[in-house]
Amino acid sequence: MPNRRNVKSKQENTSDAHERPKDFLNEPEMDLLLKGAKQGRHGIRDHLILLMMYRHGLRVSEAINVKLSDLNLKQSRIWINRLKNGLSVEQPIDGVELRAIKRYLSTRNDSLPWLFTSERSQPLTRQSVNYIIKSAGKRAGVGSVNPHMLRHSCGYYLANKGYDLRLIQDYLGHRDPKHTVHYTRIAGKRFEGIWG
């Protein structure tokens, strides 16, 4: 009988996280991706969803379930409802993101509860977000991009800024620190100064 284990399960079972391929975008690549998202048919919305997925480490299912009631624009805060038994938290919204949210909301003329909606006045689907990200990646010339790379990119960004493991763990909603260690282990910042 043939071996039916897929590559992903083999990858997840490795004892050394360094055996994983690069699964994130660095800051310049993220900037290109966000610019690529702006060039789409629904550029204002698409840019915002990618920005929020990156800034808050959102999974696709978390992003499409963000409700307007989760936003507190007066205090520049968002309630992040984590799935997969993650820790839900309130996070700040910075000025760039706040302006992007307001710009997008000004294009809406409905009273739907979801933040991200389709032309058919429905919440975006996982498939539509996958398509938005893939298309933005092609336009940006950053290669093949999948939604979970944005969550990983958030973790790597925080690790490279020197934030400690516990803060990154809480920010991404991980209950177990073993899910967070990967970011801090291969963050380039910790190797800076070795030869200087």
Automatic annotation (TrEMBL):
UniProt record similarity statement:
Belongs to the 'phage' integrase family.
Query: Which UniProt key words apply to this protein?
Result: DNA integration, DNA recombination, Fimbrium biogenesis, Transcription, Transcription regulation
Q: Where is the composition biased (Basic and acidic residues)?
A: 9-23
Q: Where is this region: Disordered?
A: 1-23
Q: Which organism is it from?
A: Marinicella sediminis
Report the residue ranges that make up the Tyr recombinase domain in this protein. Answer: 20-196
* Source taxonomy: Bacteria, Pseudomonadati, Pseudomonadota, Gammaproteobacteria, Lysobacterales
Q: Which domain of life is it from?
A: Bacteria
- On whether Transcription is a keyword of this UniProt record, the answer is yes
Instruction: Establish whether keyword Transcription regulation is in the entry.
Output: yes
This chain's protein is named Tyrosine-type recombinase/integrase
Report the PANTHER family cross-referenced here. PHAGE INTEGRASE-RELATED, TYPE 1 FIMBRIAE REGULATORY PROTEIN FIMB-RELATED
